[in-house]
Amino acid sequence: MADEFVERELVFFPGIYSDRTAVWQRDKVVRVKGKVNAKDRAGNMSDEVKLLVDSVEEITAETIKDFKQSGKRAKLPKARAKVPTKTDAVQRLYVRIASSKDESTLLNIKQVLDAHPGDTEVVLVIGEADKQAVRLPQKIDNKSGFKALTTVIGKDNVKLH
Questions:
Q1: Among candidates 122, 149, 143, 145, which has minimal Cα distance to 133?
Q2: Is pLDDT larger for residue 138 or for residue 71?
Q3: Would you list the domain boundaries of the chain?
Q4: Band of residue 95 on the pLDDT scale cut at 50, 70, 90
Q5: What share of the chain has pLDDT > 70, as a percent?
């Protein structure tokens, strides 16, 4: 995605995933092609946009050097229902901690989540160099919860996107 803070769920079927196991490594840049889907399992439109992956290609320095634009414009899907826009996108609150072994900080974060329920997803980013992101099952109020978390773990460790 063009915006480094947008997350999209990619859905891989076993054939696609197993055929390209070499590209599924940290820090590899890949280009995926597929069909955009904003429907839930029942077939109803949802706010979650997913990409059903048809193909995957690793992007290397040589690939970029040989890249030539085709001049074709991307086809937009036919609008059957309202397509979620950036303003409709789900907001996420990113909470960064140095280590998952810091039990007191984790307990403080849980207490804030319990005290400020809301509609904003919470993603816990763990580590300094080798970061891991974990989407938490609890959601938080992005105003009061944000303020409470900044008090607990510091303003630089909480970001709303």
A1: 122
A2: 138
A3: 9-65, 92-160
A4: very high
A5: 85
How many residues does the structure list for the chain?
161
Residue 17, both tokens:
């995933």
* 152, 144 contact by CB (below 8 A): no
Q: How far apart are CA 30 and CA 59, in angstroms?
A: 5
Distance CA 29, CA 5 (A): 16
Residue with tokens 């940290």: 26
CB distance 77 to 36 below 8 Å? yes
Task: State yes or no: pLDDT of 76 exceeds 90.
Answer: no
CA dist 153 → 98, 118, 144, 148, 158 (Å): 11, 19, 14, 9, 8
